[in-house]
Amino acid sequence: MTDHERTAQELAVSLRGITKEFNDGEVKALRGIDLEVPRGQKLVLMGLSGSGKSTTLRVLNRLHDPTSGEMTVLGEDPMAMSARELRRFRQRVAFVFQHFNLVGRLTALENVMAGALGTLRGPRYGVMTYPNAMRHEALAQLERVGLGDQAFQKAGTLSGGQQQRVGIARALFQKPELVLADEPVASLDPESSRQIMELLLTVCEEDGLTVICSLHQVELAIEWADRMVGLRHGEIVFDRDASQITIADASTIYASTDPTTSSDPEAA
Ligand SMILES: Nc1ncnc2c1ncn2[C@@H]1O[C@H](COP(=O)(O)OP(=O)(O)OP(=O)(O)O)[C@@H](O)[C@H]1O
C-alpha cells in the first residue's frame, strides 16, 4: 500500500479542489473545497443559506457530481464507481435529512427497513415481506432511539422529533461508516433540536461513526462537534477545533462582515 493509499484509508473524507457549478456555470455553489476528515470525527458545517453546505454533503455521496476536483470517501473514489458499486457505497454512507424523508403512510418500522432496500431484490410491501433478521434489527434500532413503542405507528402521525428519530434509526440500520446530516434539526423546536442532536451524536459516537452535519445552531455545534468548518460563497473560511471556539467566534460566519477580514488571523 502506498502512503497516499494508507492516508486515504485513515481518512473518512478527502476533498481536493472540489467545485460544483449549476446552470451551466451560472451558479458556482462550491469554489474549490479542500477538506480532510479523519475517521470518527464529528464535524459541523456552518454557513449562511446558500453558502454550499447541502451541496458539499450531496457531493460526498454523489447525489451531485462535482464539476471538478478529486475526492476520496471511505477510501474510495465515488466518481470512479459503477451504478452497482455506488449502490453498495451508499449503504456505507447514511443520510439524515432536514425534512426526515419518511413515507408517512408506512409504519416507523418499514421506514427504518427502507434503509436496506438497496441490498434487497425487488420491492417490499408490508413488514412481513422483509427477512426476519431485518425486522429484529430495525426494531432494535427503533428501541435505541427511544421509539420501540411506536414501531407500528404510521410515520406521518409521529411528531417532528419522533420522525427524525426514525430517520436516525434508518441511518443506523444501514450500518454505515459515515453519516451525513443536512440540517437535521432545522424543522424542530429548540428542546427537540437539543434532544435530537444529543441522540444523533451519542449513537454515532457509540458506533464509532464519522459524522458531517450542517447546523445553524452555534451553541449546539460547539457543544457536540469536534470540529467546526464555516462556508461562505462556496469556500471554506473557518476551520477550527470546536473546543477552542466561542459562540462569538462561530457567529462571525453569520455576521454581515466577511470573516476573512476579521482581526483574528485564525478566523480566516
Ligand atoms: N440543483 C440546483 N440547481 C441550481 N442551483 C443550485 C442547486 N442546488 C443548489 N444550488 C445553488 O447552489 C448554492 C449553494 O446551495 P446549498 O443548498 O448548497 O446551500 P446551503 O448552504 O446548504 O443553504 P441552506 O442553508 O439554505 O440549505 C446556492 O446558490 C443554491 O441556490
TrEMBL record:
Superkingdom, taxonomy of origin: Bacteria
GO MF, one example: ATP binding
PROSITE patterns per the UniProt record, alphabetical: ABC_TRANSPORTER_1, ABC_TRANSPORTER_2
Domain ABC transporter: 13-258
A Pfam family per the record: ABC_tran
This protein's UniProt keywords: ATP-binding, Cell membrane, Membrane, Nucleotide-binding, Translocase, Transport
Keyword flag Cell inner membrane: no
Protein name listed in UniProt: Phosphonate ABC transporter ATP-binding protein
